[in-house]
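tool=predict chain=A
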Amino acid sequence: MHVYLPIAEISVNVFLVLGMGGMIGVLSGVFGVGGGFLMTPLLIFMGVPPAVSVATSANQIVASSVSGVIAHWRRGNVDFKMGLVLLVGGFFGSSAGVALFAVLRRFGQIDLVINLSYVIFLGTIGLLMLHESVRAILRSRKPTGRRSKLHQHNWLHGLPLKMRFRRSKLYISALLPLGIGFSVGVLTALMGVGGGFVMVPAMIYLLGMPTGVVVGTSLFQIIFVTANVTFLQALNTQTVDVVLAITLLVGAVIGAQFGTQIGAKLKGEQLRSLLALMVLGVCIKLAVDLVATPVDLYSLDFHVIHE
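tool=predict ok
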């Protein structure tokens, strides 16, 4: 059974899209990520234009994140105060990112920027996370091994405007989560991601938050930032495909509930190593596609932008 996507201008198998949404929902519940880092490339592989993939993925992430947050909130694993500070930075970052997205699209460079951003960010973060998680697993298996702190205090922790986050047991400068939120907001707009693959390691290693609290708090922030991106993308670039978004949404909401149950049974270092492997897998596929000879050497773009 196929359905036509009016903005993407292609027909896709509705059951395949539902399955993709369900898989991303599971990832959202397990890892605390919106799943856009995987959904956007998968849509591109299906033939959906990169600009439409980015904007539509941001919309779908809202649903899977809401479902995941509810499940984590019931377990008491959401630091709402930290989430609100991250959210302020995320709103400013996502607004700036959508403006940059529109400029790059006007000059015809948005597809290249999207693909290069994925290769660079996913490759770097995936390698760092895999290295750290493997070391943590090896240390935990030593009989006399002692677990070291995931973060070290440096000049960043001496910044002003300190706030106390009781749920995370932290007393740090509010500038740190504001900066992280802003950066993730920009990435959400440019890459169609919730930013969890950046947010989660940053909250663990820079802020020093407990892994159990990080997942739910990350999803809480992702909800509102991706909603802001979806609204601005629909208003400014008209690249949100509603039919595709709704189909993905149905699968994602169901999948997220199963994901939270799976995530509760895994240790923190196991979660990070699995996420790192998935991030690296997507990165390698995108890198190969960038350098491989395309099937069609020439393509025509009929989209005309009127000033």
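The chain is about 70% helix and 5% strand. Confidence is low (pLDDT under 50) at residues 302-307.
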